[in-house]
Amino acid sequence: MTDAPNLRQAALDYHAFPKPGKLEIRATKPLANGRDLARAYSPGVAEACLEIKSDPSTAALYTTRANLVGVVTNGTAVLGLGNIGALASKPVMEGKAVLFKKFANIDCFDIELNENDPEKLAELVCALEPTFGAINLEDIKAPDCFTVEKICRERMNIPVFHDDQHGTAIVVGAAVKNALFVAKKKFEDIKIVSTGGGAAGIACLNMLLKLGVKRENVWLCDIHGLVYKGREVDMNPIKTEYAQKSDLRSLEDVIGGADLFLGLSGPGVLTPEMVQKMAPRPVIFALANPTPEIMPDLVRNVAPDAIIATGRSDFPNQVNNVLCFPFIFRGALDVGATTINDEMKIACIDGIAALARATTSAEAAAAYQGEQLTFGADYLIPKPFDPRLIGVVSSAVAKAAMETGVATRPIEDLDAYRHKLDSSVFKSALLMRPVFDAARAAPRRIVFAEGEDERVLRAAQAMVEETSERPILIGRPDVIERRIEKAGLTIRLGETVDLVNPENDPRYRDYWETYHHLMARRGVSPDIARAIMRTNTTAIGAVMVYREEADSLICGTFGEFRWHLNYIEQVLGRDGKRPHGALSLMILEDGPLFIADTQVHLHPTPEQIAEIAIGAARHVRRFGLEPKIAFCSQSQFGNQGEGSGKRLRAAIRMLDEGNHNFCYEGEMNIDTALDADLRNRLLPSNRMEGAANVLVFAHADAASGVRNILKIKGGGLEVGPILMGMGNRAHIVSSSITARGLLNVGAIAGTPVTEYG
């Protein structure tokens, strides 16, 4: 375990290097010459200024305001550190801005103000309205935070959201909603005992009332004991609303029969003896940080069936505001909301709670390896790195804003909006839409050779949910069922997915006899055929496709590409079908780029290069794109007589002799292919406009190297490889593929074989 001094130094180094702080400002427009400068600043900038003066709503079009949040604090209640002042709070506010950007692509300025008078602080915040699309108040002590927020909400025409209050309340609301679902209890029936009369605690109680809890069933305690009618010590109007008419005075006095303990106070407040007095199947939210009101193991000792949440990441059910604030602001900003109202907050709660009850995403599972992410007592709310949060929660918030009349820029198509949000985290989503649409329109049976792999199981789950395809898994049923249960998936063998058990399947004899028939004159005896059909899942899948018991095979999650290719060629390489090449789609920040041939031909002939280009053009059109194919080499338009350029020029001549309806050019360097200005200087008569979107190489080493550099260093997301020439009957993926990648290849395989080779 890392000791405290090392942890402290590591945290300081993180903030100091390679440059101080966690934020920087980057330009979104080019500023490379005098023309750019004249548009960005004087005189061109005046045009944008005049448009905004004429119509203030156009600020959302000509400036960053509609995507800019101000994170504002005076540093009077920072984390568990207390009143450390505005300057010392800056690392926290920078961190908050980083979370906005990471989880919802919202830009932020952090603003730390030396002002402790709440009314004056509110005045300063209100004066910032022209700069921001929304304000996130942060780490302002109670009760000042209530005053600041009230004034700002009344005077400002943009959302003002005190995250310590409402963000906590929303996440607590979602977690309590699901905890009661698990415990089979209802909001209107439960007794709540809460510790902590600060901003977060009161906001949580207010939200629970909106969800159906009865005020008379809420017992609020603070450091002085029960908040009761007539108490004068440390009271304010907010606490007074929860004062009970009672002779009881302490937490221990009121905890009996409580269904929910809600702690936002300090360590050790709740004892095991108090837990024993609570109602059966108690729900305990001990949210003090870093040490909760009671440690989960102490609860388990006296109430093994308790449902527990904390504010810590090393226990299940971490109540973390990052589940809320990026996504509620995303929805609010996108519709130009003038405020964040209760309906938007409840929509946020419902979205978060529903997502936890759904199947866990493969991306969240990868980010939290080793954790059980199945809905239940230990998984009440989604993990922050679940990429579905932005689509589910932000679209629900936007919808609520429009329905309640606070949206100034309503969204016409909410489904399209949600797809756009998803595509911001699933980089392949937008590009893959036409492929998925085709897959939904034509139900096909996709067989996965490595059916026991968790990535395959998650992909099969997503296929059942998102397409009309029927997954077939090859593997041992007991192993698959255990892994389905562990992953919290809802697919069921024989119901939503089919199974082939290599160890015991009634079709075994049919399969080995088919394989022997195909391979009898290639040295395969009946004994070898029997052994292969017991042990080689790729061969089994290929036989299934050959026998028309499946439409397409996906394999390769482990093992070497050419090993899998050997069995696919043996079984399916007939009737004019043979591998022409492997095509990888790389999704980059500035758009898609296809690379071929990365796997099949190590040193392709001119004829094979021409086939690769024809196949690539056909497949690129599946994604709704028009192919522009560049033949890439060290040689440039004939300046080298030998080497790869010679084979590429021969391939181009073959294409020129045919009647092909796609653009191609070469041979040329990669930079020439991607830079139209450079290409036009070198060969003004070239036949390609703009940048190429397909790079074809004459060496597999070159193609594979470019593909891997783009993936590892360029941040590219790979879709594929797509095996060309096999009539869409088989695809061999790479061993590093993700569940999302398998789903994408499954959608590609789900297109009818008659359309693409």
UniProtKB/TrEMBL annotation:
Record's keyword annotation contains Aminoacyl-tRNA synthetase: no
Binding site for NADP(+): 78-85
Residue ranges of domain Malic enzyme NAD-binding in the record: 165-402
Gene3D superfamilies listed in its UniProt record: 3.40.50.10950, Isocitrate/Isopropylmalate dehydrogenase-like, Malic enzyme, N-terminal domain, NAD(P)-binding Rossmann-like Domain
Top-level lineage group: Bacteria
Pfam families: malic (PF00390), Malic_M (PF03949), PTA_PTB (PF01515)
Binding site for a divalent metal cation: 138-139, 164, 289
Oxidoreductase listed as a keyword: yes
Record keywords, A-Z: Metal-binding, Multifunctional enzyme, NADP, Oxidoreductase
Active site (UniProt): 96
Official protein name in the record: Malate dehydrogenase (Oxaloacetate-decarboxylating)(NADP+)
Organism whose genome encodes this protein: Sulfitobacter marinus
Organism phylogeny: Bacteria, Pseudomonadati, Pseudomonadota, Alphaproteobacteria, Rhodobacterales
